[in-house]
Amino acid sequence: MTTPWTRFKQAAHLEEPSQVPVAFIVDSPWLPGYTGINTVDYFLLPDKWLEINLALLDRFPDAVWIPGFWVEYGMAAEPSAFGARVSFHADRPPSVEPMVTDPAYWAEVDPADPQEAGFMPLVLRLYEHVEEQLRAEGLGISMVAARGPMVTAGWLMGITDLMMGLVTHPAEISRFLDTLTTTIIRWLHAQLETLREPEGILLLDDVVGMISLRHYNEFVAPHLRRIFDEFEGLIRIYHNDTPCRHLYAALAEANFDVFNFTHQVDIAQVKAEMGHRVALMGNVPPLDVAVREAPEVVRQWATACLDKAAPGGGMILSVGGGVSPDTPAQSLDAMLEAAQAWSKPVP
User: What is the pLDDT at residue 346?
Assistant: First the structure.
């Protein structure tokens, strides 16, 4: 039986399924507002959280949710494992405050234990609980997620001090990123072990897009490659919606399968830069179009993306990043309708 998830996997492997899959990254910036629930309640009440995520399957049966049934506390899980201060809010995801700006301090920290550190044990326990409930209903969770080493370092040190440290304290920053990479690999393994049939991982790291190609090759490429190599055989999705065309060719060598990227670069250009080495997941503008425009405009944008990048396979229709707060359901409907109606242009 062909399902949306089946089509997604085909496209992730650079194939051309019978219909282009449509997938959305959704989490706490969008879901509480979409359902009208207090954001703190979304995190605190597991039954309500489960009800909201299950309802997506009924409301949008043809969509793929990435990672799907995501147990998350905004971006706080990874930095909380190293002691970051986290503040919760009723109407938005948690905020994280940088701790120590000195690279020498971070060069000496040990990798975190996902079974004990910060919010990680809470995430793991809820995954175990939810997976058991979903299996009883004939469902399950296929994918887990983690923030990448650069964005996690940015939360812990502050972005400015991290960027300065690449130049002023390269050895210390390199050691810190290696520690974070070890933690992230442990963290992803710990989450996957709670699932009965794991099929994929999502890694999110927008901060990578802020650095030069030289710094990417020196400080980031080995760590991204190490993470994605560790999970060979699973579907590996990399989210980075910072405009960074200067990195696309290098990123294509990081050994992930699917790239979710910014709407600020034309999807045809991204395909040209990365070749037929990774599947593309994008790239309708999430705010200026999906939030602010009428469904017909969203549909036109989606169709244009399909015309440019779907021929030849390896195309997953989405917004250029995650689903933004206040995105109406009708915008997602419009993208699903565009994929259903699309056919390959005649040469």
Answer: 74
